[in-house]
Please model this.
Amino acid sequence: MYNKGTIIPGLVIFVLLVTFPIWFNAFSTASTVPKIELPPGGEKECVASATEMRAKHMVLLNEWRDDVLRSGNKTAVTVGGKEYRRGLQTACMQCHTNKDKFCDSCHTYTSVNVYCWDCHLTPDVAAAKKEKH
Amino acid sequence: MDKQRRTFLKLAGATALAGLSAPVVVNLNATPAMASAAAAGHGEEKRQGMRLGLLIDMRKLYGRTDLLDKATEACHRVHNVPKIEGKKSEIKWIWKTAYANAFIDQSVNHASKTTRESEFLVLCNHCDEPPCVRVCPTKATFVEKKTGIVAMDYHRCIGCRFCMMGCPYGARSFNWMDPQPLLKSVNPDFPARMRGVVEKCNFCGERLALGKEPACVEAVKEVGAIIFGDLNDPNSEISKVLDREHTIQRNAALGTKPSVFYIV
Model:
């Protein structure tokens, strides 16, 4: 082979440059998959399995909304012996009390802008302004 | 030649007659549909099944402004309605107003002193023929079929305010500003609204689901001034009182068929 001394290092440098994104990401902390916080209260069960909830929670929320609000079926659902009053504030946020570490961590990561909190009260607001009886 | 002309004229006459009478036949066929629409008379109840209504016995509330305020306060507290000063921006689900404002078509000269000086509790009438539902372009406001409640889906409201134009009772308020920061205390079980949507009384649908009475009914329980129940159930308390007492409705002549009745 002619010019072995130039070609081999050149190839090595080329491969390193081309694969830069792969090995750079392996050591960098610029983007990490968010770790969501499990319910602080220690609840282990949800209305569906974790995989299903991860993939379809938005569909479920829409179904609940339409059924409760539009069809007027304001009944609770019982899953695994626990009763859930279908609703973002009345079911989901009862266990997942930290919106920042649960909802926002993934939504921010995936750049999803939800409008739930335009109207619905976050657990923080609800706790801070909860009426005293 | 003569005979031919005679046959021709006969034929022409018969054709003309057939042509004239044909539309009459069509019109006659069309009338029954219109007749049946007219048969549903004024004040007749259209919807079958449950139709929730409210009866406010004003005799128990005269001179008790504190109770009227208590009802408003209770309602606005459980539904996260902020207190905003000013006629333009205020949000109200249930409020008090003078007789002449509440019963525009029934205010008369020489009304009694009580009538003139008292304030009346008014709210969404949950009409059987709701104009707000008719004008809503997104179906954000609709009649809940199970209960007859004129409900709102705030997710769908685009804030066009057609419903506010449509409602003859002023029962709808528009959120000119974000209501959440204006709430001093909240009911954590109920959402607030956002800037740019219209809101109104929901007959406490969420409380009824839990087996509770509407907040206003509960607030004036000490005098029992408000009766809540199914207008289509002849055995309900409200139906019995309606049978017994003379009641009036706000602007009944408009044909909206309100579900809120008053004893004045």
User: Anything to note?
Assistant: Residues 2-39 of chain B form the longest helix (38 residues). The beta strands of chain B are 52-57, 94-98, 119-123, 141-143, 150-152, 173-174, 198-199, 226-230, 260-263. The radius of gyration of chain B is 26 Å.
